[in-house]
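Quick one, probably user error.
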């Protein structure tokens, strides 16, 4: 049975025991609606509270869940299993198959009804992998500035020659715990988080103390550096276009026009070339996280999409 615990904000969350770990999640709304439930999946370094401006609005239409991926928020932050080498049964292979399995199992065990999966950044790739696992139990996927994963080995030919040449050295270095911990400790500072947010939110809207605290607190937990180590060692994993090739459910794209990391041009290319993509909504004056930077506009789009779900 789920239990209650404190999360990365001042509210309470449910804890779901999954395999060897604990998964934090929250739920608003009730299941009386004929619409599918919604599951919100955050991006790298974020947590379920990053949907602070969306979950209450969406819950007015149907049951709405938000979940912390393993390694983030208030979910377990186990040691990373690299290259499938494990030193303990509690080690976790930080990858899209593992996170996709987490979300799919959550939908089956906790939600227990058809779902629309909504993911931001890497949460979009996770949503697509979970949708593959859920098959007919998934009614749709919404990708909000989905991670394009330009550093994946399968895209290495697109990188400058120096980057191609130095890739083996980079891989060897980031496996070292001392280096990953040093990089993490330098990044996990409120001043650095605020600087990154100013890049991700080019309009500057909604960069407040609550947001900085929300992202900083989970980084102070004992396992946070290990989760970071696992993530930066993802070099050969799923790419969103490949996951969408044979997807049977509709996919809707929502994109910040000024995203500094995931260019809108790629989203437009996806929309014109991938059959399962139904729509692309471009949010002006927004960057990588338009759901938090421009929530009023994004919520309008999401509510329209949800009304189309079966």
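Nope, works fine. Designed sequence:
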């Amino acid at each position: 049975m789920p239990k209650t615990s404190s999360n990365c904000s001042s509210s309470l969350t449910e804890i779901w025991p999954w395999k060897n770990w604990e998964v934090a999640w929250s739920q608003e709304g009730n299941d009386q609606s004929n619409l599918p439930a919604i599951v919100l999946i955050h991006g790298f370094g974020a947590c379920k509270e990053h949907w602070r401006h969306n979950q209450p609005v969406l819950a007015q239409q149907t049951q709405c869940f938000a979940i912390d991926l393993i390694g983030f928020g208030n979910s377990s932050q186990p040691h990373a299993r690299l290259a499938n080498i494990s030193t303990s049964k509690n080690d976790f292979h930080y990858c899209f198959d593992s996170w996709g399995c987490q979300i799919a199992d959550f939908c089956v065990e906790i939600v227990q009804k058809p779902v629309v999966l909504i993911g931001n950044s890497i949460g979009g790739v996770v949503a697509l992998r979970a949708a593959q696992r859920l098959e007919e139990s998934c009614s749709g996927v919404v990708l909000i500035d989905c991670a394009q994963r330009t550093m994946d080995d399968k895209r290495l030919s697109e990188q400058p020659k120096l980057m191609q040449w130095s890739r083996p050295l980079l891989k060897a270095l980031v496996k070292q715990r001392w280096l990953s911990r040093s990089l993490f400790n330098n990044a996990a500072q409120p001043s650095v988080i605020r600087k990154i947010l100013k890049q991700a939110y080019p309009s500057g809207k909604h960069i407040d103390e609550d947001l900085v605290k929300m992202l900083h607190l989970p980084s102070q937990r004992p396992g946070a550096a290990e989760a970071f180590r696992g993530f930066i060692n993802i070099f050969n994993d799923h790419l969103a276009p490949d996951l969408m090739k044979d997807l049977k459910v509709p996919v809707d794209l929502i994109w910040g026009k000024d995203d500094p990391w995931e260019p809108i041009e790629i989203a437009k290319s996806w929309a014109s070339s991938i059959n399962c993509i139904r729509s692309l909504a471009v949010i002006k004056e927004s960057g990588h996280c338009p759901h938090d930077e421009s929530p009023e506009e994004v919520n309008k789009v999401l509510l329209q999409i949800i009304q189309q779900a079966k």
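The two ends are 29 Å apart (CA to CA).
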